């Protein structure tokens, strides 16, 4: 193939005379000494896969949040001081509202591009959290959290938690009827914290609810405290990503010891940089066409009013759902009140969920005893128990999320809200277990199917009739690249204790924990299907060959569809157009 | 694999049976049409440049729309949507999207697409580095003498540890102490129950059976004058003699705080349907009862009234209260019944409170008992 026509960067750049760029580079490097770090990173390799883009959506929507957020701060007044609204939104003219609400209306109606920026900010926030959630599931399902990346997983969970809090503090700021109802409920949540709840509330709100302090305080948290933490953690997340190098899918030439892909400059600079503009652009289109949080319709906050169907933003939906289906338990003892009905679903459950998420990598590596570095991703089917655990957690989340909309569901489908609630009270416990079992079995049968394909090839859909009248389907071996990608996974090693007692029958220290570990490891891996060995593969191919010759002698007529039985070879594919 | 030696503590015994399929290695690089066909290359170049150019056009259109479309009192409307928002958002979105799509098209079609391979290195430092690091650390700690001088170590721990206390104490003025604020509302004996928003007092005969009225204490609309035992206004001198002062109309924050506790609902039901618990027989007037509007779960104002069943449903978390049965919880996550406001009629025939609520309203809290 002649490279005559291509101008695509195949020629080495050679400078004829000191260019301006070189001058700037020299100036900078003489002071910062960056060349050492840059020579490694400018052409840093990133592997390509669509699922690696999910985290990028989160990153870029965070940038959109910073940009649109700064715009909003130029007009927003974080004050609960009373003012009489006089602006372009006629229905509220002359009404006593807070400065926060009036300035939010001002941004929406009297600042050009103000409504656009408000809506973009809100949409970007939803995108940010949604992308983080999906990115987290991708990382878990593919085993990308394993050593050496456990700490980055923990940072990721913190980012998700902080992002959620950032969202709550943000949508509480406009002081409209809906967000005020959210703050009212938050006041009730804090009140349910044992011992200190009442005091925390009085300090947080500067006295009794609603007071005049909560919005300025939430504002400081929203524009300074949490964004600062988010920035620092995102920086750490990115640095660790660069340091560890990206994980990759196994495949021809892609091993645990290398990383194969495109260089940072120019390909990823263009792709990732371009993707920033796409995320930003899509957010702008959403801000243009999709109305979100129309605070003028809700009206200003009034502690004596509420709208039917009050719901938080979607990411707060699952703890809100837990709150809705929790039975009304409360204990009264020693002159105090403990509100289990609020404390368990809204304080304990989310804390527990965060703890479980953070612990997942460590629990798995303890059970499996696997302390090796992993840079190759696993397909979800190749880790059936892990996949089952995440699907169970998703089911748990999803059922609570449904509970968070139980009133809407009841009205939409004409169901009894009591029946929905009773059903969900049971389902949140039973559902995840069923989901786990189904997922695990499903993964295992997919593993079987993979082995089937490796050993006997894929089904061609060609039905053969032999001389005795029996029918069979022709199988073709997989292309070698595909076959290798399927087989390039590790065999699971069940943790075994060699002997828990010494020759005198004395139990070794810590052997009880080791026994538990061995049992859990058996449960974790025991039912998995392992990939065939070389001998099994050869045996299967040999068998196929014999079978083929048999039918060949009798069915010479369809020789054109001959079953290939030679060891699989890479097929030359025509260049794609 | 490579790191087995790093895990002497692990009980895993590894046997790697022969791999079924050997790594065929990286597939050969395939040339794209733009690599071999000059026409395709030019076309791709034109596409990318075209998108960048179109993006510039949209940016100009954004600037134009900013000045052309009016907002405010008399906004330009297009299909029922604010033209300014739609045009600005659309132009900005397209300007950004076209840069993004153009850049990616450039990367996919024209930039070099040879995959390159980089080797990984374990995150773990080499043994020598570790030893050196530990040695440096030990030397540093040794030279500080912190291990040999417990007096310095302990006093340092004490002094830095104590710094946490001012950090907490300095937050003390974030808010007042709760005191007994959560136990009282602004309601008191003889205070009229008035309609929310309008402030009109309510006579029993104004209410139909099945009707629900959102109510507030009269003091939110006009000052409350102390009354004598028959409900007549005391003169200033009489009031002073009894140690009672007129209540001013609360304003601003104070009004919001009082409203958040005092909001009340008044309902009229068939007297025969009502089953008052002991001591509450005379808390209603001809089937008219008053309850706190603030949910005992987490404090949402309750609003959804089912006339037929006398049930009141909270829109936030669906706690349901039976107003014919002392506000008891019949469904949902709330635990406590809605507090009831004892009612009577004043000499002018208007509904008034017999007293404040007899228990704290709103969500439970630790000290509530």
TrEMBL record, chain A:
Query: What's its catalytic activity?
Result: a quinol + 2 Fe(III)-[cytochrome c](out) = a quinone + 2 Fe(II)-[cytochrome c](out) + 2 H(+)(out)
Keywords of the record:
Cell membrane, Electron transport, Heme, Iron, Membrane, Metal-binding, Respiratory chain, Translocase, Transmembrane, Transmembrane helix, Transport
Kind of enzyme, top EC level? translocase
Q: Where is the composition biased (Basic and acidic residues)?
A: 538-552, 560-577
Q: Where does the record place it?
A: Cell membrane
Q: Which GO terms describe its molecular function?
A: metal ion binding; oxidoreductase activity; quinol-cytochrome-c reductase activity
* Cofactor(s) this protein requires: heme
Q: Main subcellular localization, coarse class?
A: membrane
Q: Where is the Cytochrome b/b6 N-terminal region profile domain?
A: 24-250
Spans annotated as Disordered: 529-577
Q: Which residues form a coiled coil?
A: none
Enzyme Commission number(s) from the entry: 7.1.1.8
Query: What would be one Gene Ontology cellular-component term for the protein?
Result: plasma membrane
Q: Which InterPro entries match?
A: Cyt_b/b6_N (IPR005797), Cytb/b6-like_sf (IPR027387), Di-haem_cyt_TM (IPR016174)
Gene Ontology biological process terms from the UniProt entry: respiratory electron transport chain
Q: Is tRNA-binding one of the keywords UniProt gives this record?
A: no
Q: How does it sit in the membrane?
A: Multi-pass membrane protein
Gene3D superfamilies the record matches:
Cytochrome Bc1 Complex, Chain C
Residue ranges annotated as transmembrane are 57-76, 122-141, 153-173, 185-207, 219-243, 274-296, 342-363, 383-402, 408-438
Record-given protein name: Cytochrome bc1 complex cytochrome b subunit
Which gene codes for it? qcrB
């Amino acid at each position: 193939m002649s490279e005559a026509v291509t101008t695509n960067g195949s020629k080495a750049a050679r400078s004829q005379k000191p260019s301006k760029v070189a001058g700037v580079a020299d100036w900078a490097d003489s002071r910062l000494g960056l060349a050492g770090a840059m020579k490694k990173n400018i052409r840093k390799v990133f592997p390509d896969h669509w699922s690696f883009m999910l985290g990028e959506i989160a990153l870029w929507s965070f940038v959109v949040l910073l940009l649109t957020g700064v715009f909003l701060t130029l007009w927003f007044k974080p004050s609960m001081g009373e003012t009489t609204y006089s602006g372009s939104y006629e229905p509220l003219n002359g009404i006593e509202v807070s400065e926060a609400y009036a300035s939010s209306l001002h941004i929406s109606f009297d600042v050009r591009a103000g409504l656009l920026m408000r809506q973009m900010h809100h949409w970007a926030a939803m995108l940010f959290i949604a992308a983080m959630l999906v990115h987290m599931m991708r990382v878990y399902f593919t085993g990308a959290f394993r050593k050496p990346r456990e700490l980055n997983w923990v940072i990721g969970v913190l980012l998700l938690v902080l992002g959620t809090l950032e969202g709550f503090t943000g949508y509480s700021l406009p002081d409209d009827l809906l967000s005020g109802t959210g703050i009212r409920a938050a006041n009730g949540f804090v009140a349910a914290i044992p011992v200190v709840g009442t005091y925390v509330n009085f300090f947080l709100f500067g006295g009794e609810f609603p007071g005049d302090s909560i919005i300025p305080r939430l504002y400081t948290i929203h524009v300074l405290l949490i964004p600062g933490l988010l920035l620092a953690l995102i920086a750490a997340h990115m640095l660790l990503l660069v340091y560890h190098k990206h994980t990759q899918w196994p495949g021809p030439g892609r091993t645990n010891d290398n990383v194969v892909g495109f260089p940072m400059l120019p390909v990823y600079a263009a792709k990732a940089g371009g993707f920033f503009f796409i995320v930003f652009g899509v957010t702008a289109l959403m801000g243009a066409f999709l109305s979100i949080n129309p605070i003028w319709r809700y009206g200003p906050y009034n502690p004596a009013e509420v709208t039917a169907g009050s719901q938080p933003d979607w990411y707060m939906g699952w703890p809100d759902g837990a709150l809705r289906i929790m039975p009304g338990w409360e204990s009264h003892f020693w002159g105090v009140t403990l509100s289990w009905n609020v404390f368990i679903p809204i304080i304990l459950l989310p804390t527990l969920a965060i703890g479980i998420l953070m612990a997942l990598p460590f629990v798995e590596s303890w059970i499996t005893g696997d302390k090796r570095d992993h840079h190759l991703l696993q397909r979800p089917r190749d880790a059936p128990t892990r996949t089952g655990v995440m699907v169970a957690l998703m089911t748990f989340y999803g059922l609570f999320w449904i509970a968070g909309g139980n009133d809407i569901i009841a009205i939409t489908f004409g169901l009894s809200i009591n029946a929905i609630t009773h059903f969900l009270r049971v389902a949140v416990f039973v559902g995840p277990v069923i989901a786990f079992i189904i997922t695990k079995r499903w993964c295992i049968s997919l593993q079987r199917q993979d082995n089937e394909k490796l050993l006997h090839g894929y089904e061609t859909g060609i039905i053969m009739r032999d001389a005795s009248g029996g029918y069979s389907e022709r199988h073709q071996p997989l292309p070698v690249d595909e076959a290798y990608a399927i087989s390039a996974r590790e065999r699971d090693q069940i943790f075994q204790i060699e002997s828990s007692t010494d020759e005198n029958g004395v139990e070794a220290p810590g052997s009880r924990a080791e026994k538990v570990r061995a049992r859990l490891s058996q449960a974790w891996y025991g039912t998995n299907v392992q990939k065939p060995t070389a001998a099994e593969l050869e045996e299967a191919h040999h068998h196929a060959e014999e079978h083929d010759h048999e039918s060949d002698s009798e069915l010479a007529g369809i020789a054109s569809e001959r079953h290939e039985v030679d060891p699989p070879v890479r097929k030359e594919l025509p260049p794609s157009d | 694999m490579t790191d087995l030696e790093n895990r002497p503590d692990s009980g895993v015994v590894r046997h790697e049976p022969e791999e079924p399929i050997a790594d065929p290695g990286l597939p050969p690089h395939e040339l794209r049409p733009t690599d071999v066909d000059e026409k395709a290359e030019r076309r791709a170049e034109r596409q990318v440049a075209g998108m960048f150019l179109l993006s510039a056009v949209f940016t100009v259109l954004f600037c134009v729309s900013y000045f052309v479309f009016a907002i405010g009192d008399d906004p330009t409307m297009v299909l029922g949507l604010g033209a300014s928002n739609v045009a600005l958002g659309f132009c900005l979105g397209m300007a950004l999207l076209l840069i993004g799509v153009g850049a990616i098209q450039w990367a996919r079609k024209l930039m070099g697409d040879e995959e390159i391979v980089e080797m990984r290195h374990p995150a773990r430092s080499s043994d020598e580095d570790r030893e050196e690091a530990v040695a440096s650390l030990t030397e540093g700690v040794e030279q500080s003498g912190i291990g040999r001088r417990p007096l310095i170590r302990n006093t340092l721990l004490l002094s830095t540890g104590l710094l946490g206390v001012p950090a907490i104490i300095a937050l003390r003025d974030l808010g007042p102490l709760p005191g007994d604020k959560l136990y009282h509302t602004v309601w008191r004996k003889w205070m009229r129950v008035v309609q929310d928003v309008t402030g009109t007092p309510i006579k029993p005969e104004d209410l139909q059976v099945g009707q629900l009225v959102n109510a507030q204490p009269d003091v939110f609309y006009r000052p409350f004058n102390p009354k004598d035992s028959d409900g007549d206004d005391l003169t200033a001198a009489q009031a002073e003699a009894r140690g009672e002062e007129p209540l001013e109309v609360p304003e601003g924050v104070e009004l919001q705080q009082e409203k958040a506790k005092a909001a009340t609902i008044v309902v009229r039901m068939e007297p025969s349907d009502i089953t008052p618990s002991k001591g509450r027989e005379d808390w209603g007037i001809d089937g008219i009862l008053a309850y706190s509007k603030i949910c005992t779960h987490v404090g949402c104002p309750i609003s959804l009234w089912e006339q037929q069943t006398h049930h009141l449903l909270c829109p936030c978390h669906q706690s349901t209260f039976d107003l014919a049965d002392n506000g008891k919880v019949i469904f949902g996550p709330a635990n406590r019944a809605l507090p009831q406001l004892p009612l009577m009629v004043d000499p002018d025939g208007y509904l008034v409170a017999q007293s404040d609520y007899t228990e704290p309203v709103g969500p439970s809290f630790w000290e509530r008992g």
